[in-house]
Amino acid sequence: MEKEGVDFANSDFWRRKASTADFLGLAFRVELESSDPGQNANLKYKAKHVLDIWLEVYRVRFGDSPKGFNREEYVDALAKAFETREGRLNVAIPARLMFEALDRDRNGVITYKEYGDFLSIKKGDLTNVEQNFNAMDLNGNGTWSFEEFQDALVGFWLCVDEKDVSKHLYGYMEE
């Protein structure tokens, strides 16, 4: 789903959508939200590792101090990174780790409950969460495979179509 010629920086919809993804907040909140400390530590580690990979991929764009970025600067940096073909292709790099972090029972799929838990931990908007989960469940079997999750992740970051359901990946977005 690589998009050529999309002006991410000037798309109000994309900027609003991108600002809902909060890897730093997720990495540090997970620790407080789980009833299983071992699983919790694993998810926190994976969330932090996803963030580290993401920042490494876009290191040149973010500079040396990504933790000093505010949300607006973060979205600006991503928009600039996505101007390049390489930047767009790198979107999927952390997908496997993110998938494994959400697949808390490690059965190879993400269930509605696991997705809801993720949104709760992330403090995402749970409005229409079941409807959005089902819309991103492309084969309709009630779970997300890795491929379905990766499609949703790439769609979230690279799609500027306001009707695309992947916009709800990190929580409900009003039209």
Automatic annotation (TrEMBL):
Indicate the transmembrane segments per the record: none
Key word Glycoprotein present: no
Per the record, the coiled-coil ranges are none
- Gene3D superfamilies tied to this protein: EF-hand (1.10.238.10)
MF (Gene Ontology): calcium ion binding
Q: Where is the EF-hand domain?
A: 98-125
Pfam families to which the protein is assigned, alphabetical: EF-hand_7 (PF13499)
Domain of life, source organism: Eukaryota
**What UniProt keywords apply to this chain's record, in alphabetical order?**
Calcium
List the protein's name: EF-hand domain-containing protein
Species annotation: Klebsormidium nitens (Green alga)
